[in-house]
Amino acid sequence: MHADSALTAKVKDYALRTLRADLVGVANIGRFEKAPLRMSPQGIMPSAKSVIVMAVHHPDAAVELGGMEHPQKIGPYAIQYVMNWRLDDMSYRMALFVEKLGFKAVPIASSNIWRYKGYKNLNEHFAADISHMHAAVAAGLCEFGYNGLAISPEFGARNRFVSIICDAELSPSPLLEPGSVCDNCMLCAKHCMSGALTKELDGWNFVEIEDKKYKYVKKNLWRCAWGEHFDLDLDLKIPEKVTEETIIEHVKQYGLRGGEMGSCLRYCLPKALRYWDRTYTNAPRRKKHTSQIQGVFHRGLLEELHSIGAVWGADTVIVSDSEALNGVNMTDYLPGAKRAVSILYSQKAGNISSFPEEANPYSRPGSGVRYILEQSAYDACRLLERFGYEAVTLTEFQEESLLASLGTGNPAGKQISSLTLFTNAELPLTERSLPAPAAISEPSPEKLRKLLEESISKFEGDAMGVSSCKRMDELCDQLEKYYGDDEFLDAKDKALRFYSFEPEISVKKRRVLRPSDYLPGAKSIVVIGLRVPEQIAEATARNEAEAVGPCAFAQYESVVRLRLIATNLQKLLEDNGFNACFAFDMSNTSSVTGNPRGEQPDAFSNNFAAFAAGLGRLGKCGALITPKNGTNMRFVALICDAPLPEDALLDDPALNESCSTCNACVSACPTGAFGDEIKIELGGLRESLRKIDRKKCDWAKRYSLSAEEGNKYLGWKLDESVPETIDDKSLDAALRKQPPIPKYRPCNFESCLMACPHTRTQSQP
Question: Of these four, 166, 318, 630, 758, which has the most CB atoms within 10 Å of its CB?
């Protein structure tokens, strides 16, 4: 086969125009032939032919103004966390896009998923599933700097990357010449407070790709991570030799100070882009590729700023000066600042009088708003830079100053949230009011449903079904006798990060929740589905890499995407005069899974709501089986008081009929969590599944105490047998055995689901 240039163009267009990547490149699989197999694309997906690499860049002001006083006072450099979320969004969506084009793909998380101390014959520390920096070099976006960072001709080290493995044969990008970007200025080594680039060095790492040979210094990664990852004070006397034990000892003795802005990144720019302005910052500044024209303003800039907010779901963008901000001195945040650009989001105030305490935290009212504002502001910063200006966001500006100055144009009954960035672009001032809601005239149930479907499609959701609350209540009546008053253990870690686990355990009773518990007067439940890329399950704990990172990534990124969709649909309903909220486990019959981004709704969450909405049938393990994607779909439930047309239940017995004779899920459970049979009848359909003992299930997937549930593939040694009685004492004793560093980033999965033929292909006996 030959590389497909037309297909490559489609992929790059989607990356640049829809996902707003700053750079995109492609590496063919041959460029990874010398990579360690356990952290290579082919180790994860043996059929891989290409790796797509996308980059976004740090806004210059965030790098040049952040960390000026001290690397651990990062200030606006906190934008890196927003960048990580953006890269995750890009990776996941690109994988789904490649699937729609007819190919297979595995998205890789941006960061924070790795094997701290290697695995089996993999000796590398902090080994990610694949290295995005190596992938960026292999895709022709960068070369390696002395410091080991992937540096591009456009942004130097001010980039972050994400990679997608696929079996599409794409046209590879040309490689950069070694030594063409890094001029060995050694500013990185001079300013590194941990000494990672001057102490404990062990020669060079050499990377051979085709006929090119790149190199970067081989440093002690534990020393490098002293402040950047482990939050230890850089002003401490750092030992001459830094090991994992050294880190743990110093954490116990001195505690944590906070994350570090890497000086290697802050001072690293190609010679052609580097210049100094000591009145502005003590770091080198980056020359822009576009310069300003005195006295000429590009009117399209303001229009594009407005469109950026709309893409994410914000109401409007307003431009203010210091006078309009009640005298706020904008130059305190950005030298030379002339305007404040504020992204505004409105929602109905006080529309939910009783939100259940038991609901998953990701369901809390307003939980998706911050994401919309941060991503909009980040895009706005990058847009202003492309026009030759400076911009900074995530400052300490108090948004109350802005909201207080909005004036009488603020609609009554609205709760307004905002995020403001500052720029030296002298943008035209705008009206300081919110636009009227985008309501439809005479919102009939049919029109409203169509509007919801269009919005889900716009935000790239995969499925939608509607159940009446009456039908859901009928189902909850049956669930009550199986799940009502179930006892489970809720354990929290009182210790700081990287300390030994200090459990705080409470015994709780489960309560089956109904739509009215979320929203009095609720009439309909809109269940939104987002698929998980098929190859994630196929690769989990399999092939040469035995990777579990992509599965953990899908667990949290599907929640982020669904929360974004649900937040925008909630606003759509509110703008049309209705009340709404959303939930990730509406009936409260599921649990959570341990994850590097904090506990996430498990794969059974909203299974009953999705069944009631006609999206699938229930399997023996309790997962919903859908016609197109099997069990590889995740759901959010939007509860509203709009009387929407209800979908029929899915009368397709072939979907789960094999469950009656298959026992793979039950046999695969490492804790024997499957119990008695649950029988449900709804609308003439009969479903049978096995009840999960939450204490036993949580032992493995929530509390990381069973090696088979994922963490053994990260190199964890912890594998605690399930005691005869799981109580607060036995759980306390087991949790105290968790490793102090890896416990912060667990990667668990549901073994029962991975054994299901509706999830992935299974080996024949």
Answer: 166
Alpha-carbon separation of residue 553 from 13, 105, 327, 440, 600 (angstroms):
24, 14, 44, 38, 11
Q: What is the pLDDT of residues 699-717, one digit of tens each?
A: 999 999 999 999 999 999 9
Q: Please give the Cα distance from 130 to 549 (Å, whole number).
A: 10
Tell me the pLDDT tens digit for each residue of 666-683: 999 999 999 999 999 999
Measuring CA to CA, which residue among 530, 532, 531, 514 is closest to residue 467?
514
27 and 144 inside one domain: yes
- 408, pLDDT greater than 50: no
Q: State whether 160 and 110 are in the same domain.
A: yes
pLDDT for 411: 65
Q: What is the mean pLDDT of residues 305-321?
A: 92
Helices marked H in 352-416: 369-386, 399-404
Same domain, 269 and 306: no
Task: Find where tokens 């103004």 sit.
Answer: 65
Quick one: pLDDT at residue 292? Answer: 80
Residue 479 lies inside a defined structural domain of this protein: yes
Q: Is 358 left (phi over 0), alpha (psi -120 to 50) or beta?
A: alpha
Q: Residue 101: which residues within 8 A CB-CB, separation 6 or more?
A: 7, 10, 11, 168
Indicate the helix (H) or strand (E) that contains 155. Answer: none
Cβ–Cβ under 8 Å, residues 637 and 606: yes
Report yes or no on 434 lying in a domain: no
Task: Note down the domain range covering 112.
Answer: 5-285
* Nearest one of 227, 303, 230 to 496, comparing CA atoms: 230
Residues 35 and 143 in one domain: yes
- Of 423, 456, 490, the residue at which a domain comes to its end is 423
Residue 176 and residue 266 share a domain? yes
Q: Return all residues near 526 (Cβ < 8 A) that are at least 6 apart.
A: 452, 464, 465, 466, 569, 613, 637, 638, 640, 644
10 Å CB burial of residue 81 (0-12, 13-18, 19+) is middle
pLDDT confidence of residue 349: 76
Q: Is the pLDDT of residue 764 over 60?
A: no
- Asked whether residue 625 is assigned to any structural domain, the reply reads yes
41-44, long-range: CB < 8 A, 24+ apart: 41/130, 41/135, 41/163, 41/165, 42/544, 43/543, 43/544, 43/545, 43/547, 44/106, 44/129, 44/130, 44/165, 44/539, 44/543, 44/545, 44/547, 44/550
pLDDT digits (tens, 9 = 90+) for 436-453: 777 777 779 999 999 999
Q: Give percent of the chain with pLDDT exceeding 70.
A: 98
Structure tokens at 152: 């591009």
59 in a structural domain: yes
> Does 150 have pLDDT greater than 80?
yes
* 352 pLDDT higher than 70: no
Residues 281 and 305 in one domain: no
Out of 391, 423, 455, a domain closes at 423
Are residue 465 and residue 603 in the same domain, yes or no?
yes
**Number of structural domains in the chain:** 3
What are 547-576's pLDDT values in tens digits? Answer: 999 999 999 999 999 999 999 999 999 999
Give 3-state DSSP helix, strand, coil % of the chain, rounded to 5. Answer: 35, 20, 50
